[in-house]
Amino acid sequence: MEKSRVRQNMIVRLKALSPQERQAWSDWACRSICQQVAYQEARTIATFLSMSHELDTRCLIEQALRDGKVVLAPKTYGKGRMVFVPYDPHDLKLSSYGVWEPRSDEAVDPSEIDLIHVPGLAWNEAGYRVGYGGGFYDRYLKDYQGMTVSTIYDFQRCDFIEEEFDQAVREVLCYERNDK
């Protein structure tokens, strides 16, 4: 399936989740990441600030802060450039993409990030993902050497052909619905 159709289909499916389904998925994602050795050994983690149709990353952020970890959030610029900066809940602004992001430009060097929680819309069996089409994460992950993880809903696993610039996520954790 072509990526634009995958993107449209997944956004519709994500928006159709009930608040209870989204909360169960979000709680599971937090627990699942925190059980990973990469998380337990990490000093610095990066995660996205979720949009209303995505899993809620606030649980993970709060847990990581309680665990004494440095938490980073993405900040985007023109031409697909993205950096991670220290997360401060009191210093966020709404980006032109409708996503909350830090006001700060204090970029943390990728070599200092132990684990990145990667968002997206769909993943194939090889860990490649369909994002929102801006290429921010693919560009960032191209030279990133640390651990990457995504926490997906079972319906987000899908067949598509990756493109040469796509970067695979190293660990894809899949939430299985109870109603199957």
From TrEMBL:
One Pfam family cited in the UniProt record for this chain: 5-FTHF_cyc-lig
Gene Ontology molecular functions: 5-formyltetrahydrofolate cyclo-ligase activity; ATP binding; metal ion binding
InterPro entries for this protein: FTHF_cligase, FTHF_cligase-like_sf, NagB/RpiA_transferase-like
Residue positions binding ATP: 3-7, 129-137
The UniProt record lists the keyword Metal-binding: yes
Catalytic activity: (6S)-5-formyl-5,6,7,8-tetrahydrofolate + ATP = (6R)-5,10-methenyltetrahydrofolate + ADP + phosphate
UniProt keywords, alphabetically: ATP-binding, Ligase, Magnesium, Metal-binding, Nucleotide-binding
Required co-factors: Mg(2+)
EC number: 6.3.3.2
Family: Belongs to the 5-formyltetrahydrofolate cyclo-ligase family.
Protein name as annotated: 5-formyltetrahydrofolate cyclo-ligase
Source organism (scientific name): Streptococcus acidominimus
Gene: yqgN
